[in-house]
Input
Amino acid sequence: MSAEKKPKKSSSRLKMQLVDFWNEFKQIKFGIIGIIFLVIAILVTIFESFLIPFPEASTRWRDITYWEDNPRNAPPAWINWFSKKDYTPTTYIDDINFEENIMSPTMTLMTSVIEYDYRYDVPPIDLIYRGRYKGSFTLNIVLERPDGNVLNLVNKNFSSPSWKDFRVAIGTEAKNPVQSFAKKYQNSSVQSVKVNNVLFAQANETILSNPQPLKGTYKFKVNIIKTSADTIIEEPKLVLSGAVSGILGTDNAKRDIWSGLIAGTKWALFIGLLTSAISVTVGVIYGVVSAYYGGIVDSVMQRIWEIFANIPLLPVLIVLAAIFKPSIWSLIIMMCLFFWVGPVKTVRSMALQIKEETYVEAAKALGASHARIIFKHMVPILIPYSFASMALNVPSAILYEASVSLLGLGDATIVTWGQILHDAMNGGAVTNGLWWWVVPPGIAIALIGMTFAFIGFAMDTILNPKLRTR
Amino acid sequence: MYCRYAFKRILMGIVIYVVIIFIYSVLFNIMFAVSNIYLLKEPIIPMIFSRWIDTLTFNYGQSMVIRSFKGETDVFKIVLERVPNTLLLFTLATIIDIFLGIRLGIRKAQKVGGYMDKTTSIITMVCYGLPTWWVGLVMIMLFAFIFPFFPSSGILSVPPPETFLKRVGDVLYHMFLPVMTLVLIRFWGRAYLTRNIVLVNLQEDYIMSARARGIPEKSVLYGHALRTSAPPLLTMSVLSLLNSFSGALIFEGIFSWPGMGTLYWAAVQQNDIPVLLGNLSITTLIYIVGMILLDLIYGFLDPRIKVGKNG
Output
């Protein structure tokens, strides 16, 4: 490039250089694919709350009460497409409209009918009726089956002067009526009756030993009798805790894995981008400074570099994390402490060449300060290389965080993919073949890694013209 | 000339080791003081130095919970008996991986931009961010539990077979799954690097002149191109062995391979800090020894260093 005379030109020269770089980048197919993936990941982060059925997954991942209505270890709902039997998916019915009948000044009867169309082979794990209330009321649930049988499932009183949650698990509350209903058809010595198997089974003599599904519309009549005038009931809903659940199933703490996975995306991006941006910036400046000053400064800086390069990173991280119990911030700082060594050697050798360029000498002759020469004339030339290096560093930062989390040493206030895998290992997901718990987080890590590898390798191809494939 | 180079390099390595151990000592003593794990009775500065000397003389103290296979509590013995297992697993995996990776890499360089080069390059990038331990988990789930072909963990069956030959066979059988996983993930990356290194060399003039002289392509590739690419290829291979050694410690825990990685895992779970620190020191030592060996071999292969500037 010819020497520019106007002083303002150096920033526009940088701009031109980046535009050229982008034009070349556009030619490389997998680089574009990488960019598209990155945009998708960023979009997922932005629209996280629209994508997941449990919007508070990120903040209440370890809150058992938040997940209690889900089934435990349920496979994803879409396995119905592949299996012979249809499994009931987890369903939330929350548009429940009540008809109010005022019976006396203090008593109000609220009734509603919830219709549920059951067309599956395997019944749900549990039925849960829940909501919030204040005051006192009696809850009565009557089920009318498609074959006309009527079962009185629940009769229960609630009273509390302040706001409280109520939660009725029909599977445990309705044991007795269901048992006597089943005994009418089959005389069995079996003591424990699986309530939901009977509720959704054909009424014949094998109702207990070999229940056949009874498909059709089930009507749940919910009668609530308010026994005091100031009773308020809010957010009533019926939850069918299914045999299959959600997009990616649930884990052994009843958590929805899809929600965890999407909530983990932002942390993976955050950890990866921040760590690699900081460490590569430090490394590039370190290399340039070392090359620019040369002599004793250079050799001291290179010795320091050598010491850091000889520290085995992952074991040190594990030991530090085991003693320190890090938050996500301290983990990022720890990674940055060791990651900066990566680009130094290459940058130093590149900077040694740049140092000999005529325009650097000209700048020196004009009396430019050291800082000006380094940051205005040398570092900008290395920006494309820095970007490539950053892109290739992102996956390893994510991987290191995942490895530390896998050992159970991650930040317990957030949810990351490594932590989901840690829970999966401890929860016996591998031995029991719960693939929906083990496979997706790993694929997510691999996808993000691939995204940045595509971008990084594409930049690498531009920067090393000898690797061009004609 | 080479002797002087070697001597300097080894000395340098020892100095680096001593400095790193000092850094560890400072770091961990400060952290203990901050987090109050040990109630320190002495002031911190003498503690830092006494621990530094202890670590350098392999005096790691007694473990808190973990015992060696024979039941000893000496941390040095606990760590030392696990070193061979780790080396066995990773060396074997790396040898297979180098063999396959270099062959594939040369094939890729030979027909750059061809169908095979493109597809394998894509696979390289797909595998780039793939956690090996996760692939290990999936492999165990698939081939040890869903289709029980291979054992899921350990190095020997219980009870171990009696004859030596059978025992070797048993170890190999237990190694199959972890080694296969490591190779399957790694060798794409190695092939890609080999391709890049060989590709640069293939554009040199002496290759063209060799081809012009009518030397068969195979001998051009394996004789000329591979020969000049040997030093960087070797560096890359040993470096990746070292990285796999320190990076894949997690991987060992997944397969319950009784090596140093599983020891980290156990020490973290039981909060056995002496074992953790002792293990870290030995890992660092092996890592640095590997780095020194790497430079020594590199110097031996690279004539510029071997003969010296004046020679």
